[in-house]
Write a structure and sequence with these properties.
The chain has 489 residues and is an alpha/beta fold. Helices cover 36% and strands 20% of the residues. The structure holds ligand BES, manganese (II) ion and zinc ion.
Length: 489
């Protein structure tokens, strides 16, 4: 699959499909094209076949040119980046339903920012071509069945050059999303902590600026990660702490550290979950998977940033060695934790990983976790929750989410919430009671992130979808890539 950009005369570009984003009033390139086709498009609009409404699609065949098609893609009302992305997704899906092998996307139909628009086109086509691969292998690049080339057409040479950059970037985001989706969708009997560790090693293999280190339980014991190890205690699968280091710029530039929760299956432990829908707890490693996806995106696009990924990976199981409610453990930070509920395990593995992050002297730390069911109550499946000890960092992440159509919304970290974590037997309890569950979870993490700028993304609502379309979404890879790109000097 190759992406190219061109500003040559549209009618001279050889292709078997042309995607034309337009409203019901044909303008610019759409009007020119209609003229060259003797009004074929405008007559269909007049007849009511195509209304130009946002996301509407109509495939038409050009008379006399067998196998040539135009996919009309409605744009009316697509006034925000999010709506424009939805339109592009609809166009990508319509294109991939056809047997097209060489397509031209007539650009600038939605936005005059060719770089941005082209990046979303490439990402959407990559994402639309993802297929779950049941074999235990990570898809590094998922190949669409038929589409070989997509040429993004822009109205000027300058715009085509900008689009070229956008295509490369967008394709790397799409591939990164697909890596995260594939890891998320794999069942927990294949995707174990050891499997994730091996995939992280495979990702770094042959890469000159990505290295993977995997710490064993013995290593973690030496580091005094008593909180993380209290979660893996109940499982026969050994926990792994996976560290990925990407160096895209001078070593002196402080890294952004991404910490991704990877509970490869969350039964709840001794505080066992109910059976309904428990299979979806294989997705409890999607935070870690998003870090892998971002790393894949970084090596592909060679962004000039330094990033460290830390993935604490474990199962949460209830065997005879399992941690019991009321047990008190000592975290790597020295703070003690009374574990009142073993199902609040994400924060227990993250806190030690966040303490470990200090050694990288980070510019900022962002953790990504399917942490609380409560965030679904607050924000549904639309936005991720953002909680941060730094207003600037929170703003940057929110803006990156808007720009990439991978949105988030901020919740507060006030001390009134933090007080709910009081324990009579340790420095803190691991749960804060029934109210404001997303916030109290983040307040717990905030006690381990005082030494640097930090933000927490609760992606329990956005990392996968349930129901007949069940599957991992690849979020928040687009937001994180956009954020990292914005930090590049
Ligand atoms: N992995 C879950 C969070 C989750 C639940 C994500 C449902 C998506 C759907 C997490 O480990 C968990 O169990 N959280 C508990 C916390 C509670 C015990 C304080 C929850 O949200 O119920
Ligand atoms: Mn849990
Ligand atoms: Zn969990």
């Amino acid at each position: 699959m190759e992406f190219t950009a061109s500003s040559a005369n549209l009618l001279n570009i050889k292709a078997d499909s042309l995607i034309l984003a337009t409203g019901s009033q044909l303008q610019n390139s759409a009007a020119d094209l209609d003229k060259s086709l003797d009004g074929a498009i405008s007559s269909l609009i007049k007849a009511g076949d195509f209304g130009g409404k946002s996301g509407e699609t109509l495939v038409i065949h050009i008379p006399g040119a067998a196998g040539k098609r135009i996919i009309l893609l409605g744009t009316e009302g697509a006034s925000t980046p999010q709506k424009q992305i939805n339109v592009i997704n609809a166009g990508a899906n319509a294109l991939l339903k056809t047997p097209s092998s060489k397509a031209v996307w007539v650009g600038e139909g939605l936005s005059d920012d060719s770089e941005w628009e082209a990046s979303i086109v490439a990402r959407s086509i990559k994402a639309a071509s993802y297929k779950y691969a049941p074999q235990p292998k990570m898809v590094k690049k998922s190949k669409p069945a038929k589409l070989k080339t997509l040429c993004y057409w822009a109205s000027s040479k300058a715009n085509a050059n900008a689009a070229k950059k956008g295509l490369t970037y967008g394709a790397s985001v799409g591939n990164g999303m697909n890596v995260a989706r594939q890891l998320g969708n794999l069942p927990a009997n294949i995707c174990t902590p050891s499997y994730l560790a091996n995939q992280a090693k495979a990702l770094a293999k042959g890469q000159k600026n990505l290295t993977t280190t995997v710490l064993s339980e013995a290593d973690m014991k030496k580091l005094k990660m008593g909180s993380l190890l209290s979660v893996s205690a109940g499982s026969d699968q050994p926990a792994k702490l996976i560290i990925l280091k990407y160096q895209g710029t001078k070593a002196a530039v402080k890294p952004t550290v991404l910490v991704g929760k990877a509970v490869t299956f969350d039964t709840g432990g001794i505080s066992l979950k109910g059976g309904n829908g428990m299979d979806e707890m294989k997705y409890d490693m999607c935070g870690g998977a998003s870090v892998m996806g971002v790393m894949n995106g970084l090596i592909e696009n060679q962004l000039p940033v330094n990033v460290v990924g830390i993935i604490p990976a474990t199962e949460n199981m209830p065997n005879g060695q399992a941690t019991k409610p009321g047990d008190v453990v000592t975290s790597m930070s020295g703070q003690t934790i009374e574990i009142l509920n073993t199902d609040a395990e994400g924060r227990l593995i993250l806190c030690d990983a966040l303490t470990y992050a200090e050694r990288f002297k980070p510019a900022a730390v962002v953790d990504i976790a399917t942490l609380t069911g409560a965030v679904i109550g607050a924000l549904g499946k639309v936005a991720a929750g953002v909680l941060s000890n730094d207003d600037g960092l929170a703003e940057q992440l929110l803006a990156s989410g808007t720009q990439s159509g991978d949105r988030a919304w901020r919740l507060p970290l006030w001390e009134e919430y933090d007080q709910l974590l009081k324990s009579n037997f340790a420095d803190m309890a691991n749960i804060g009671g029934p109210q404001a569950g997303t916030i109290t979870a983040a307040c717990f993490l905030a006690r381990f992130t005082k030494k640097y700028k930090w933000a927490h993304l609760d992606v329990a609502g956005t990392a996968w979808i349930s129901g007949p379309q069940k599957g991992a979404t690849g979020r928040p890879v687009p937001m994180l890539m956009e954020y990292l790109r914005s930090t590049a000097s």
